[in-house]
């Protein structure tokens, strides 16, 4: 059974692990401010707007490929958008439950409501490799693409969200079975495809690991 707890969640340990500080640079946070979005050219290929979140996106993409080949075999090229969404939900659940371990609970960090935004910001997809990390500022010209080089079909604007505003909305949802976790992702996939979906999942992985150690 799922239990929602707002009092047991503290952002400080997560902020320390991910960002290394309490004062998060807005421009660095902006690069991580994206959801799990599929390409318009390949319905099962996740896109990355800027340098940074490839460390989260790449393993999820690998799980999507694994499940796609397992479920569709040689017909994988005919995967529809709806089937790609199902692959994403199942892959997110698999990874989170693997972190929880046998008999452990998955701890999902979810925003209670939409965080306040500050207008919109251009997004650009990163080139091959990932040379940025959330702990430092990228130098001009290091990774990423200009808006003019963005692949056709990708959104040109993303909301700018303040780190403090985003973290103030986070709550903890604890689920005990992989079926529950997969069902949660199916029902709430739009939240993970929207801004900060990647960060919400990263925080969920950390909270699940921390909870496993304490258990």
From TrEMBL:
Where on the tree of life does the source sit, at the highest rank? Answer: Eukaryota
Q: Which GO terms describe its biological process?
A: protein K48-linked deubiquitination; proteolysis
Enzyme's top EC category: hydrolase
Question: Which reaction is catalysed here?
Answer: Thiol-dependent hydrolysis of ester, thioester, amide, peptide and isopeptide bonds formed by the C-terminal Gly of ubiquitin (a 76-residue protein attached to proteins as an intracellular targeting signal)
Q: Tell me the segments the record calls region Disordered.
A: 109-161
Q: What is its EC number?
A: 3.4.19.12
Could you tell me the keywords of this UniProt record?
A: Hydrolase, Protease, Thiol protease, Ubl conjugation pathway
Q: Which InterPro entries match?
A: MINDY-3/4_CD, MINY3/4
Q: Which spans are transmembrane here? A: none
Name one matching Pfam family: MINDY-3_4_CD
Boundaries of every Deubiquitinating enzyme MINDY-3/4 conserved domain copy:
15-215
GO molecular function annotation: cysteine-type deubiquitinase activity; K48-linked deubiquitinase activity
Q: Look up the signal peptide feature and give its range.
A: none
**Function of the protein:** Hydrolase that can remove 'Lys-48'-linked conjugated ubiquitin from proteins.
Cited PANTHER family: UBIQUITIN CARBOXYL-TERMINAL HYDROLASE MINDY-3 (PTHR12473:SF17), UBIQUITIN CARBOXYL-TERMINAL HYDROLASE MINDY-4-RELATED (PTHR12473)
The record's similarity note reads: Belongs to the MINDY deubiquitinase family. FAM188 subfamily.
| Protein name per UniProt | Ubiquitin carboxyl-terminal hydrolase MINDY
Q: Which organism is it from?
A: Amphibalanus amphitrite
């Amino acid at each position: 059974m799922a239990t929602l707890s707002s009092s047991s969640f503290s952002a400080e340990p997560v902020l320390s692990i991910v960002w290394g500080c309490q004062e998060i640079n807005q421009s660095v946070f902006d690069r991580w401010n994206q959801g799990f979005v599929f390409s318009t050219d390949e319905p099962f290929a996740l896109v990355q707007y800027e340098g940074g979140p490839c460390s989260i996106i790449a393993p999820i993409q690998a799980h999507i490929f694994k499940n796609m080949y397992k479920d569709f075999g040689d017909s994988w090229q005919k995967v529809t958008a709806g089937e790609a969404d199902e692959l994403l939900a199942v892959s997110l659940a698999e990874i989170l439950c693997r972190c929880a371990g046998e008999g452990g609970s998955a701890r999902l960090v979810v925003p209670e409501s939409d965080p306040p935004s500050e207008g919109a910001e251009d997004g650009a997809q990163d080139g091959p490799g990932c040379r940025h990390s959330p702990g430092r500022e990228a130098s001009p010209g290091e990774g990423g693409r200009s808006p003019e080089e963005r692949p056709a079909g990708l959104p040109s604007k993303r909301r700018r969200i303040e780190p403090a505003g985003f973290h103030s909305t986070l709550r903890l949802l604890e689920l005990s079975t992989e079926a529950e976790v997969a069902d949660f992702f199916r029902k709430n996939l739009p939240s993970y495809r929207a801004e900060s979906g990647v960060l919400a999942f990263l925080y969920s992985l950390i909270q699940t690991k921390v909870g496993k150690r304490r258990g």
